[in-house]
Amino acid sequence: MKADKYCFDGSRPCELRRLPCDSREDGVDKAKIVEKTESNLQKMAALQDAFYADGREGLILILQALDAAGKDSTVKHVMGGLNPQGVQVTSFKQPNGEELSHDFLWRVNRALPPRGSIAIFNRSYYEDVLVVQVHDLQKTYRMAPRTVAGSKEEFFRKRYRQIRHYEEYLYENSYRVVKIFLHVSKEEQKKRFLERINDPEKNWKFSEADLKERARFEEYLDTYDEVITATASKHSPWYALPADQKWYTRYLVSEIVVDALEHCTHDYPAPDPAALDRLLDCKKALESE
Ligand code: ATP
Ligand code: MG
Q1: According to DSSP H, which parts of the chain are helical?
Q2: How are beta strands 175-183 and 87-91 bridged, if at all?
Q3: Domain range enclosing 14
Q4: Fewer beta carbons under 10 A from the terminal one: N or C of the chain?
């Protein structure tokens, strides 16, 4: 699939600055891509139906990005191809007091989907190695000295390991985790911020804090490189997708979700012979009413 090019599975380091933010390099035709996306959304719905009925595996789809890269619109669009009954979306905001008084994966466990369901994480526990690292928030943590006594590098190296182990734990407990980074360019982010300021219907989406984060754009790219490289694995890959053109991002995401569902178990449970006999009896009873 086209998205393979943007996949990181632990076999190579991630260097975002060498990856495109738009579709130019892939030489695709917009009309065809939009058509393919539609067909992927239909495939997705059919696969999800069987995946839900099967109920042996859970899928966790993580969306990470800088501001205005299109996380919300991606959620909306992917959801459009799914039955809401089998999906739950969790937005991970700044942790509240109760969350901060627990380990960083505590709130994640509570958001895990039951098997047969899909969880979409709009931001995730990756914030705990991204925004926390960029802003040195670990310095404000009330934790035992032995856990924070070492260097900053050491602290986050440990967190990368904890995340790798957590994802391995999830995989071994019948979950699949797929992680997507929406790679928007600095120029496109500026354009989208200006749109949010100029269009009254979009004003609510803009906050002054977004500009403060923008000032650290390069620092975030470096941190994402490190985080993606340290946490990509065969069973929980990262995809760093071009995000300057929403129609292309949506297509790539639709491919990834179809592929992930294809890899999950999705067999309609077959009734055993005795249950089948009872089913036929019910059919007869209904037909002879
Ligand atoms: P939008 O793109 O629409 O602004 P958003 O995902 O940025 O959506 P906000 O409510 O604006 O949502 O911001 C949530 C904020 O919470 C982000 O700045 C994010 O970095 C922060 N956050 C999430 N998890 C953590 C965490 N574990 N520690 C500190 N900050 C966090
Ligand atoms: Mg925000």
Answers
A1: 30-54, 71-80, 97-100, 106-109, 131-134, 145-148, 152-172, 186-198, 208-214, 217-231, 246-263, 273-287
A2: unpaired
A3: 2-287
A4: C
Distance, in Å, from the CA atom of 149 to the CA atom of 227, rounded to the nearest integer, reads: 22
For residue 201, how far is its CA from the centre of ligand 1 (angstroms)? 21
Q: Give the CATH number, domain containing residue 27.
A: 3.40.50.300
Q: Whose CA is nearest to atom 21 of ligand 1?
A: 94
3-state secondary structure of 137: helix
How many other C-beta atoms can be found within 10 angstroms of the C-beta atom of residue 39?
11
Tell me which of 96, 131, 216 to substitute to probe ligand 1's pocket, judged by most ligand atoms within 8 Å of the beta carbon: 131
User: How confident is the model over 213-271, as pLDDT tens digits?
Assistant: 999 999 999 999 999 999 999 999 999 999 999 999 999 999 999 999 999 999 999 88
Q: Does any ligand 1 atom lie closer than 6 A to the CB of residue 131?
A: yes
> What gap in Å lies between CA 19 and CA 22, rounded to an integer?
9
How many other β-carbons are positioned within 10 Å of the β-carbon of residue 41? 18
What pTM did the predictor assign? 0.95
CB of 66 shorter than 6 A to ligand 1: no
